[in-house]
Design goal:
281 residues; alpha/beta; 12 helices; 22% strand; binds zinc ion
């Protein structure tokens, strides 16, 4: 299989398998490091509308919003200066928590989301579109949080997102990192069987995300490491081979400890998340 990013055709098979489809292999390009599933044949027409990928297991929109609240707030805090009095688009806005917060500061906010229940839930309270084309253009800030790793052609999507931006607009792309310490430093078997997912067609790291952005004709302002899960979560994986350590052992998670741990992981590029800040070239 040719690499999507660099077109080389040599890869190694990573340990682990997709948690919901053990026949899918996890391939890592030996040239550029892009991680990809060995097949995207399971992504058919109307896949995203029907997959219920965000929340099949979640009981309600309210629960979904509670689950994303911490990320919504963190992203809002990070981007506040770029939101104030600006025209904002959140592509793949999920439950809409970030868009709702952005509305308090922006001149206008729109979301693009395929899942129908999000449209039903918000009604007129949020401006939501079912496609990028419907969202129009001229956006000062476009965000895509944990979206492009789901897409068969993320490069084209970045180009399309750039086309929606004002000439001095900013695009912020957040993705899970293929270099997550639990995968590439600790090599935790249970995590390797848990984190890979049929919905994540690609996993990027800071380098491959940078290459992708350049191929899409975008200028890379910065690609930053960010650690979403705290030390308690990692210790729990290593000790019990299970998720949820941050709920079970939250007493470990002092801000100082987690900041220091995250900084150590960031220094070696092993955080669980990478965030790219992009502009039109
Ligand atoms: Zn490659």
């Amino acid at each position: 299989m040719k690499c999507y990013l660099c077109t080389h055709d040599t890869h190694r098979v990573r340990k682990g398998s997709a948690r919901d489809n053990s026949s899918l292999k996890i391939l890592e390009c030996t040239n550029c490091g892009l991680v990809a599933l060995d097949s995207a044949a399971h992504i058919g027409t109307s896949h995203y509308e029907n997959s219920g990928m965000h929340g099949q297991a979640l009981p309600s929109m309210a629960q979904w919003l509670r689950d994303t609240a911490q990320d919504d707030q963190r992203r809002f805090d990070m981007l506040k200066p770029a939101i104030v009095n600006r025209k904002v688009l959140d592509f793949g806005c999920g439950a809409g928590g970030f868009a709702l917060k952005a509305q308090t500061l922006a001149s206008s906010v729109a979301g693009v989301e395929l899942e129908e229940r999000v449209h039903d839930h918000w009604g007129d309270a949020l401006t939501l579109h079912r496609s990028l084309e419907a969202a129009g253009g001229g956006y000062d800030l476009v965000t895509a949080f944990h979206v492009i790793e789901h897409l068969a052609d993320p490069r084209v999507m970045l180009k399309n997102l750039a086309a929606c931006m004002a000439s001095d607009g900013r695009l912020v792309v957040e993705v899970p990192s293929s270099e997550d310490a639990l995968l590439t430093l600790y090599a935790n078997d249970a995590f390797q069987k848990f984190t890979y997912w049929s919905q994540h067609l690609y996993l990027f790291n800071a380098d491959t995300l940078r290459v992708l952005a350049n191929q899409a004709g975008l200028k890379v302002i910065a690609v930053e490491q960010f650690q979403r899960y705290p030390l308690s979560n990692h210790l729990h994986w290593l000790s019990r081979n299970q998720p949820g350590g941050h709920q079970q052992w939250g007493f470990l998670d002092t801000p100082a400890l987690n900041a220091a741990y995250a900084a150590s992981l960031a220094a070696v590029g092993k955080c669980d998340t990478v965030i790219a800040h992009l502009e039109k070239a």
